[in-house]
Design goal:
43% helix; four-stranded mixed sheet; globular; five-stranded mixed sheet; alpha/beta
Length: 302
């Protein structure tokens, strides 16, 4: 690795993640790409995460850098790690996810081959706590119709950027002020970042299996009420940009759709959410299909 500064800084926040942390670290260390550092930011862990992070930093001093702060939440931890980063590019890896060996090599090649690229991302599998595959989202046609307008695709939830596959220039992240701490404890801070990056340059989707995203009870995305609140905050946040103001009603409709489709949303609440989506954007067929299914479920219960 370049002694002065690596090409890539892997941003790895951890908070009480001892169960999966070591496997995530190993998946980064085993990349078939050499020019990177791992910036571990311990966000005030009280479990073995601290010992694991310090041990890996001691065993791999040229590769792993360990820092600790008082607990401040995910956004704060990521921003602190970015402040310590030295690389030209930032690659995100959460402490419960796993990278495939080829991820960094492919992502960096894409970033370096096309000038003006603001974000590279790829496909993931969803795995459970034990590593069993729950779903596989590899699809070569994903993003095919949205390459020219990633802002709309992301804000209206037609497409998704898998956080643990995202690689982007550090100078752009710093220019944008990092992750917005208003999302602390809610989620959607990553989607907010992708939207702002998409206004700065090209967003490139690579159709390959880059990572495994772990679904477990401790994940932020498992708390549906928080996520709905975060999605509404995201729409308000995007009003700062002309593109966001233009898409406000469709974006609020997409939030209502996402609320209706949460696993713990009962049929009565579903009908209300779908109806709100239709009122906001009557041309969206997803809302009409959804409300018909929900009404059928309500009738079946009665």
């Amino acid at each position: 690795m370049n002694e002065s500064a690596p090409l890539v800084s892997v941003i790895m926040p951890v908070y009480n993640g001892e169960r999966f942390f070591e496997a995530a670290l190993l998946s980064a260390l085993e990349q078939d790409f050499d020019d990177f550092e791992i910036v571990v930011l311990d966000d005030g862990s009280t479990d073995r995460s601290t010992a694991i992070g310090r041990s890996y930093a001691a065993d791999h001093p040229r590769r792993v850098r360990y820092f600790r702060q008082a607990n401040g939440g995910f956004c704060s931890a990521r921003n602190a790690a970015i402040a310590h980063a030295r690389g030209r590019y930032l690659a995100l890896l959460d402490a419960d996810d796993l990278w495939m060996r080829h991820h960094l090599a492919n992502a960096v090649a894409a970033l370096e081959s096309t000038a003006g690229t603001a974000l590279v991302h790829a496909d993931v599998r969803f795995i459970d706590e034990h590593g069993a595959v729950l779903a596989d989202y590899r699809d070569p046609d994903r993003w095919a119709k949205w390459g020219h307008d990633p802002f709309t695709a992301i804000l209206l939830r037609y497409e998704h950027v898998a956080c643990t596959t995202a690689v982007f220039p550090r100078d752009l992240a710093l220019q944008l002020g990092g992750f917005d701490v208003r999302y602390t404890g809610l989620g959607c801070e990553d989607r907010d970042m992708w939207l702002r990056l998409s206004l700065q340059g090209r967003v490139t989707h690579l159709s390959y299996h880059a990572a495994d995203y772990r679904v477990h009870s401790g994940g932020v995305s498992r708390h549906s009420d928080r996520m709905v609140k975060a999605r509404r905050l995201l729409v308000d946040r995007m009003l700062e940009f002309p593109q966001g103001r233009r898409l406000r009603r469709p974006a609020l409709s997409a939030v209502a759709l996402s609320e209706a489709e949460e696993a713990d949303c009962g049929p009565i609440r579903q009908v209300g959410a779908y109806a709100r989506a239709i009122w906001l954007r009557p041309i969206d067929p997803r809302a009409w299909r959804g409300v018909m299914r929900a009404l059928w479920d309500v009738a079946a219960v009665r």
